[in-house]
TrEMBL record:
EC number, as in UniProt: 2.4.1.1
Pfam family, one: Phosphorylase
The protein, known as: glycogen phosphorylase
Native species: Paenibacillus odorifer
Catalysed reactions, semicolon-separated: [(1->4)-alpha-D-glucosyl](n) + phosphate = [(1->4)-alpha-D-glucosyl](n-1) + alpha-D-glucose 1-phosphate
EC top class, as a word: transferase
GO biological process: carbohydrate metabolic process
InterPro entries noted in UniProt: Agluc_phsphrylas, Glyco_trans_35, Glycogen/Maltodextrin_Phosph, Pyridoxal_P_attach_site
GO MF term list: glycogen phosphorylase activity; pyridoxal phosphate binding
PROSITE patterns named among the record's database cross-references: PHOSPHORYLASE (PS00102)
NCBIfam families linked: more_P_ylases (TIGR02094)
């Protein structure tokens, strides 16, 4: 990339994971966005991130005395945010809503601009209250502020933009504002749409159709989201009900999925959408200074004692677990990490599916597993998964741990200090999965279904292990049995013997894990690809 000629990119995301205590994130989408804008700062790429200043962030999710999750919310104040002095106005339900614009580069990131409706002149302070709190009118209001307000903020700040990048469909209304601008300058709708497409690129993350957000046109109209366009024009862009992902695909000149397998899945999923942009694969990556322990990097680069360094970091994880849960794990025994959103397709509890097989290893402590993850506050199925994991902790108190209120701190501890990083989603429903990259670069060996990023990285038996053979079926009962059999086979017949009987091989695999991922799955490669394949025409 030639720094002098890089186009400036407005990057829209509903969430940003920059630091554990900066509650602007919920999960993987935000962590990716946070890593992306740190990586952009590292190479001085002209990326201008835009988001919302969440007063309460995502849920704090604790476990009650009965072992069930409950949600609580707190108001957060951040003294490092700078007031830009800029305010912009958007319409929500035909009423003016004023959005104050803050900025920060406090975490070594490209300057992040955050819109805030929690100011005295608004009756609508609630809009930027809770991240992903609700799905209906509240969500549309938030997306009006992010998309329409975000474009207006760039204009008010005087920041020239060449490319508008939507990280997921939440920002699709930004393109509606771009179309409105062009029509107010004299263009027809067709001309404005065509010109807008030339400026917009779009990233889709959700390989489950039901997970892609839709809104009835009547609700969008009631919320003032048409933004000067007609009902027919809005329907042509996103359909009825209006699908935010379909809109993103039709409003962009090019789109991307977040791994190569995910690109195949997304192209199949959206093949019926007329007038959509091509979907290419650009695999996600991580900001290595944020996630990789410097001691591991040093030991790897200087050919030091990788095992001793790993054991030191593992001991710190065990201390952290004791402090958070009261449970003392054994540093000499295999420790498996599993931290991710409590969604059914991720199958957090697959390892418990055949108790007669796994129970002896849990009772002896030969296998120790540490879980963490939040369910969406309105997702009862996700909450049942969390409750089940807590029940397993009570059943196997010496070997199973659930760490409540998952955040970036827990994620970092687990991806640095575990021995094995377990990942067993229903293929092909895991879009990418960056936690495995963090583990791999820390010498924590992946043991994973061939889904998301892992098919691109896995050299089975050399830098980690594959579970199964890429088997797919829509019959989940058949798939879950197939994959649990494969999981036990890999874990008990390959992972355990290597860990307990062949430490030299294990260390060799740790080195190979680091070697094969540290460049390929770092943000520099990802940013190069976005510029060369998406941003630069």
């Amino acid at each position: 990339m030639n720094e002098q000629k890089l186009p400036s990119v407005a990057y829209f995301s509903m969430e940003y994971g920059l630091h554990s205590d900066f509650k602007m994130y919920a999960g993987g989408l935000g962590i990716l966005a946070g890593d992306y804008i740190k990586g952009a700062k590292d190479i001085n790429a002209p990326i201008i991130p835009i988001g919302l200043k969440w007063k309460q962030g995502y849920t704090d999710q604790k476990i009650d005395a009965n072992g069930n999750p409950y949600d609580s919310y707190h108001n957060y104040v951040y003294d490092f945010l700078e007031d830009t002095g800029v305010k912009v106005t958007v319409k929500v339900r035909k009423t003016d809503v004023v959005c104050k614009v803050w900025k920060t580069d406090y975490f070594g990131n490209s300057t992040l601009y955050l819109l805030d409706t929690d100011i005295p002149e608004n009756n609508d302070a609630w809009i930027t209250g809770q991240l992903y709190g609700w799905f209906g009118e509240e969500r549309i209001a938030q997306e009006i502020v992010l998309g329409i307000g975000g474009v207006k903020a760039m204009r008010a700040l005087g920041i020239p933009i060449d490319v508008y990048h939507f990280n997921e469909g939440h920002a699709a209304l930004a393109a509606i504002e771009l179309i409105r601008e062009k029509m107010s300058g004299g263009n027809t709708f067709e001309e404005a749409w065509k010109a807008t497409r030339e400026e917009v690129v779009f990233t889709t993350h959700t390989p489950i159709k039901e997970g892609n957000e839709t809104h009835p046109l009547d609700r969008l109209e009631y919320m003032s989201a048409f933004n000067g366009l007609t009902r027919e024009q809005i329907e042509r862009i996103g359909g009825d009900p209006f699908n935010m992902t379909v809109a993103g695909l039709r409003l962009s000149r090019i789109s991307n999925a977040v791994a190569q397998l995910h690109a195949d899945t997304a192209n199949k999923m959206w093949k019926e959408v007329a007038g959509r942009s091509d979907i290419i694969g650009i695999t996600n990556a991580i900001h290595t200074p944020t996630w990789v322990d410097e001691r591991i990097t040093q030991a790897y680069e200087e050919n030091g004692d990788l095992w001793a360094v790993h054991q030191e970091i593992k001991s710190e994880l065990i201390d952290f677990i004791k402090e958070r849960s009261g449970i003392s794990l054994n540093a000499d025994n295999l420790l498996i990490g599993f931290s991710r959103r409590a969604a059914p397709y991720k199958r957090s509890d697959l390892i418990f599916s055949q108790p007669e097989i796994i129970e002896p290893y849990l009772e002896s402590g030969k296998i120790q597993i540490v879980f963490s993850g939040k369910a969406h506050p309105l997702d009862d199925n996700g909450k049942k998964i969390v409750s089940n994991l807590v029940a397993m902790m009570k059943k196997y108190p010496k070997s199973v741990v659930f760490l409540e209120n998952y955040d970036m701190t827990i994620g970092a501890q687990l991806t640095r200090g575990s021995d094995i990083w377990l990942n067993n989603p229903r293929r092909p429903l895991e879009a990418s999965g960056t936690s495995g990259m963090k583990a791999a670069m820390n010498g924590v060996l992946n043991c994973s279904i061939l889904d998301g990023w892992w098919p691109e990285a896995c050299i089975d038996g050399e830098n980690g292990w594959q579970i199964g053979d890429g088997f797919e079926t829509t019959d989940f009962e058949v798939l879950d049995k197939h994959d649990s059999d494969a999981l036990y086979d890999t874990l008990l017949n390959r992972v355990l013997p290597t860990y307990y009987e062949n430490q030299a091989k294990w260390v060799q695999m740790m080195k190979k894990s680091i070697e094969t991922t540290r460049t390929e799955f770092a943000t520099k490669r990802m940013l190069d690809e976005y510029y060369n394949r998406m941003y630069i025409k």
